[in-house]
Structures are given as C-alpha cells and as structure tokens.
Specification:
single chain; alpha+beta; Aminopeptidase; Alpha-Beta Plaits; 12 helices; binds zinc ion; Bact_exopeptidase_dim_dom
Amino acid sequence: MPAPGENLRINPDRLWDSLMEMAKIGPGVAGGNNRQTLTDADAEGRKLFQKWCEDAGLTMAVDTMGNMFMTRPGTGPDALPVYLGSHLDTQPTGGKYDGVLGVLGGLEVIRTLNDLGIKTKHPIVVTNWTNEEGTRFAPAMLASGVFAGVHTLEEAYGKQDAEGLTFGDELRRIGWVGDEEVGARKDKMHAMFELHIEQGPILEAEGKDIGVVTHGQGLSWTQVTVTGKDSHTGSTPMPMRKNAGLGMARILNLVDEIAWSHKPHAVGAAGHIDVYPNSRNVIPGKVVFTVDFRSPDIAVIKDMEDRLKVGAKEICDETGLEVKFEKVGGFDPVTFDETCVAAVRNAAERLGYSHQNIISGAGHDACWINKVAPTAMIMCPCVNGLSHNEAEEISKDWAKAGCDVLFHAVVETAEIVE
Ligand SMILES: [Zn+2]
C-alpha cells in the first residue's frame, strides 16, 4: 500500500494557533472552555471551523443531527471516504483539547495535504460530531450514536437539558439542522480515525508520545438497593441493628476486591450513593448505590457482575439485610479494527515516535462509529492525566506527534496517487 515518505510532517505551529483560536470561543472561567453543545458558543465555533474548512477547499454537508462533514475529494470514482474527526463541544468546565484536537488535527491533515499538493484516491472527510460530551443533553456521544443506529433521531430530539429545552429545538435555534438524513452515509465509509487526548495518566507516566488504541472499555452499571431498618444510633443495641450503611460499606470493599482481581485493566467503584434517611442520628435503613464496573473484556464484565450479586447477597444475609439488583446501564467493550490499528502503529513506527498499545477508559465517538465502519483511535498524553477540567493541558510536541501519526495513518489508508 503506498505510504507517504518519512519526511512528511504536519505544521505544528499552525495546528497550535488554530487550537488557541478556537479556545477563544466559549471561554471558561479558569483558562479552559465552556462551549457546551447547541449553545451560541457552539454555533460560533462551528462557523469558525466551517470557514477554515472552506478556506482549505473542503465542501460541507450537515446531517439532521448537526454532524458536520467537510469533504476533500479523492481521485477514485468509486473510492469510499476516509473519515477523521472528533467533537468541538466541551464540558461546562472543559479543556481546550478534549475533542478539539481531533477535529482541528483533521483540518491540519487537509492543510498539509494541500501544502504538499498530495492527491489521494479516497476522499477525506473531516467530521465534527454533535454533542459528544452529553453534559447538557445526556447521553454522551449522542449524535454519533444516532448516526450508527444506536439511538433514534426522535429519541435524540426529545432529550431535555436542565432548563427543559429540547435537543431538537436547540439544534434548530442555533441553525445547524442539516438536510442530510443522519446515518445515510454510514454504509459508505472506508475507515475512520479519531485523534484524542488520553484523559488518563498512562502515556505521560510511561514517557510515550503515542497511544495506539486497541480497545475501548465496556461498562456495566448495576444499581444496588440494600434495605435494613432505620433506628436510633444511640439507643439501638449493636446486636439488634439492621444497618444498611454497613452492608454497603462491605459491598463496596468487595467491589474493590473484584476489580483488583482482574488487574490491570478492570476497574470498579460506586460513584452515586443515596443514603436514607441521611440523618446524623439515624442508622441508615436503606442505601441505593450504583456499581460501575469497566473492562475491555466482556467475559470479565460478566464475571464482575456475577460475583457482585453472589458476594453482596452473602454479606446481606450475614448482616440481616435485604438486597436487590437492577442493571441500569452499560455498553459492550469495543475492539477497534485491526487494519486501522495497524495503520496507526505503522505510522508511529515510521515516524520514530515512542508508542504503546492502550485501552480507552472513556467513551468516544469512535466507539459508536466502529459499529458501522473500520475505526481506530490515536491518543496523545495530557499533563497529569487531567481532563474534563479547565486546567487540561498538552504540549505542542504531543499535539504534533499525534497529528503526524494521524496524517500518516490517514494518508496510508486513503492511498496517495501521483
Ligand atoms: Zn472527547
């Protein structure tokens, strides 16, 4: 397969300037960004991205979820497009790079191809997926999910924010309802690559420039309800207590043990806990909490779920409590496409960047797109693994390495023509 020469590089200063320019739109309160989806700031960011793309000769299409597709034509009449992109929306107290690097990195790939006068057989499409973050309108990765057929358009349009505004109305209000049917192009994709910051501490700790993402973690949410009897903390003798709080404490210890038993990739915790009646001098009569287990291996997730149920039942039997379980969410682990992953690894190798395989702990648009097209992700380190925080930071060198690898992986896949 024709691959670009080792000497070809993106322009890191131009990439960095664009990142800083985009960060001026929807500034946060502490140096980061608040460019939440379908806000005026989102619309302004989209306009700027559109202008940059059109200046680079790309043609825009927008679908009914507001996903933006900016196309550079290829020379092959029947060659399917290679996609690259991520998201421009941010958390309310988000950083300048989460998502944005993948979109503007995609634009930088196009600008570099233009500089070098390189033509490709396959068209290249830079994409901005709407509402990846899911903070304003849950769930996350909403528009790539509709695109991939995971949710329906009607479901998505009906999602409400905290003020009761709907996704559909807000998308219309900011003027970004396109006329292309969402998902219409999902069977006509050659491949998709997403460059993203790691949002974790591994690459920086290992001193690696590039994470070659092989899998995305699967997720399982089990809501556990432990019921005992609320009674006075002072006057109830120890043998007569039915302390749901104690049951929960022991179960959470078990959750920790279960996750450790599947090291290094599995994780487990309860992030959401409700205690009833939540009063200083009442022994909790009921506790409801959600156990979050994650692993790249579906069998491990299943094992963790099963051991939670058996173990929690034992604990509750011993402590005179009742326990109920309800699966309230989850998605299967993702295995990214071997050929696309190899293109990323080869590119890092060819360019002399240090790299290692990595598993994405967070969800990404690429996880849904992988259902409909061969997909891979490239990760670059971020300082202290910090993300979803205004202090999120990366170095220009890391951005450069990530974008160089994106460039080479995309061009290898899109095939250079003379
Ligand atoms: Zn992101």
